Amino acid sequence: ESGFSGFLFLIGTFLALFATAHLVPRLQEKGTIDLYLSRPVGRVPLLLSRYVAGLLLASANILYLIGSLWLIIVWKTNLAHGRFFLAGVSILFTFATLLAFAFLVGVVTSSTGVSLMATYAIFFLSAILAAHEKISAAMSKEWAAKLVEGLYWIFPKTAQLGTATVGLVGGHAAGRFAQLNLFAVYGSSALFGLAALTLASWLFSRKDF
């Protein structure tokens, strides 16, 4: 179950982003945005409704993947652990954080491709920054080391979130999972998502269509 949860963290997050990255760019297409803005609906509620729709779509997909694998595991092993569904909660949290950034890029660029590539880039860059202490130590300039440290705390902790997902499902406190400060990992990632969604809402409310 722990192995499956790690696999689903990567695949589930990527598939969910791929399925929802178009929500803002398509909303801003000529004709579509005109139709929405002609109705008595505020811009911020309109954008947030798309965000909630993306979360609901991802929740359905994640529940399907987690539920299917859980049933297969029960069928093959006759063992059932409810902790396996914690992977779904952690994956959905990670997706919600990254979707907020995808919405921000989508508002600025109106491009599905750019939104998707930028969000994937953040995912991998954040994973690389998990080794920020080693990277900072290798920097010859102090400002570069501080930049690496700053980026680490600004970006969502995708590598640590993946480790936390596996650890929560495994129900153990060993290895890297035991070393994680879950409050810092989830808290800083949530702040990144909240800041991105807030900025996206502000830009969308002021954008000239």
Q: Your description of this structure?
A:
- The mean pLDDT is 88.
- The protein is mostly helical.
- The relative contact order is 0.16.
- The longest helix is centred in the N-terminal third of the chain and has 35 residues.
Topology at a glance:
Blueprint: H1 2-20, H2 23-27, H3 32-37, H4 43-77, H5 86-109, H6 112-128, H7 132-138, H8 142-154, H9 158-170, H10 175-179, H11 182-206
Helix and strand sequence: HHHHHHHHHHH
Rounded average pLDDT: 88
**Low-confidence regions:** none
> What oligomeric state do the depicted chains represent?
single chain
Largest sheet: none
Portion of residues within helices: over 70%
By secondary-structure content and strand pairing, the structural class works out as mainly alpha
User: End-to-end distance, in Å?
Assistant: 48 Å
Measured by DSSP, the beta-strand proportion falls in under 5%
Radius of gyration: 19 Å
SS field, number of helical segments: 11
Strand tally is 0
Shape: flat
